[in-house]
């Protein structure tokens, strides 16, 4: 008998979620990053376990419209340390958005909210960020603009005919 009762392959299947930062109802950067981190970890699933990777994919579009409150765009600094002693580079959020785009700011915010363990990089790889609204993952999305997309599995008609007879 199996030691893991009820943990089937279907429960571990990964869904694709869409987050549009261009919509007017988008929360600020920190609140959005915490919601994305929960989806990447899989904490919204009943089978969640801290040591297993059961999270979903998240596609974030419109990252050039990232919303921050206050004066964070001018005052928040990102630091990068090199191997040389006494050398530390700093970059403001405004210049980071100009240089690498708002997707990098979102990725760094989500990275800070994920647990610091061996699964963090694998979870962060499932976050796909795009500056505009166009992205190549439209076919994979289950939730798009708040609507659940109905995906019907392909069932062979011959099998259905045999079962009905």
Name the features.
7 strands; alpha/beta; two-stranded antiparallel ribbon
Can you put this structure into words, describing what you see?
It is a single chain. This protein has 165 residues and is an alpha/beta fold. The protein has helices spanning 29-41, 72-75, 93-100, 102-113, 120-125, 157-164, and strands at 16-20, 57-61, 77-81, 88-92, 127-129, 143-144, 147-148. The strands form three sheets. It has a three-stranded parallel beta sheet. Strands 3-4 form a two-stranded antiparallel sheet. The protein has a two-stranded antiparallel sheet with strand order 6-7. Strand 3 and strand 4 form a beta hairpin. It starts with 15 loop residues before the first strand and ends with a helix.
Number of E-type strands: 7
Based on CA atoms alone, the radius of gyration comes out at 20 Å
* Arithmetic mean pLDDT: 84
The percent range for helix content is 25-40%
Shape: globular
Unreliable residue stretches? 148-160
Backbone structural class: alpha/beta
H/E order of the elements? EHEHEEHHHEEEH
Largest sheet: 3 strands, parallel
Q: Report strand %.
A: 15-25%
Distance between termini?
Answer: 34 Å
Number of helical stretches of at least 4 residues: 6
**Which strand order do you get reading across the main beta sheet?**
1-2-5
